[in-house]
Amino acid sequence: MNIIKTAMLIAVMTALFMGVGLLIGGRGGMLIALVIAVAMNFFAYWNADKMVLRMHHAHEVDERTAPDYVRLVRGLAENAGLPMPKVYLIENDQPNAFATGRNPQNAAVAATTGLLRQLTPEEVAGVMAHELAHVENRDTLIMTITATLAGAISMLGNFAFFFGGNRDNNNPLGIIGVLVAVIVAPFAAMIVQMAVSRTREYAADRRGAEICGEPLWLASALGKIAKAAGRTVNVDAERAPATAHMFIINPLNGQRMDNLFSTHPDTGNRIAALQNMAAQTGGTSFGGGADGGQGGIGFRAPHSPAPKTRGPWGTNKNSSHGKRKGPWG
Fold it and tell me: What is the pLDDT of residues 280-290, one digit of tens each?
């Protein structure tokens, strides 16, 4: 079913891309746009994940450079029955994360240093489990291709603004066609992005809670990330807004235009759904953890000095979340 949905989405985005080409240059422009769209779809399938990671200056880490972070992801991947994804770190103070890749065998997860520093290990587990849920549901391919084509449509709209007014370009609608290409096409691409993200976030929240074993870990994380994201500017995300829907929480600082224009469901609704899920399970863990025979693992954010107090990557025995066994032990 996800393969069919992916094909339908690519068809919609390609048709939108061709429509912009028609408005800019008539039939010739539409054919050129078709060729470009086919080439972009092929390129996006194989390379869009690498592009998104480069856009956000993510660098790959392993058990030597970030042992606790990688070990956490490995335990969650085992819980989900998924191949171990590549693990990336983004040097950014805004707590956030996303997943990318064309399939579970070629997936990658990325978290910001802000996420690792500001959240407890349990909350980080909830976030990374959410991202692995996207991998399991094969949302990553759809979201990555959508980000690539949405960005291209926006660029094509800008191109129409500067060059679409030429009378010799066979534009069937003249200046009206140019205005449609400049305004309506990018807006339509944004609507597609919102539809893709909103319908998948709730499913990823639920499955992520099952993977990590505790819905309240993710609920707590969502509240903290949403609050911090509104205070911290993510420069790379602001430069590439077409990738905003890939993050667990909207990374754009102007995200207050919620509801109709948000790429994500309302955070309060997501938290309420997770709390309801926890209540239905009777407040007990149900996902299980990859038990390494230890009572817990102390975590520390990679490349950051040791905190003076027990922080998000140091064992905190007084943590209210620490009563249940998580994916680290």
Answer: 876 544 444 33
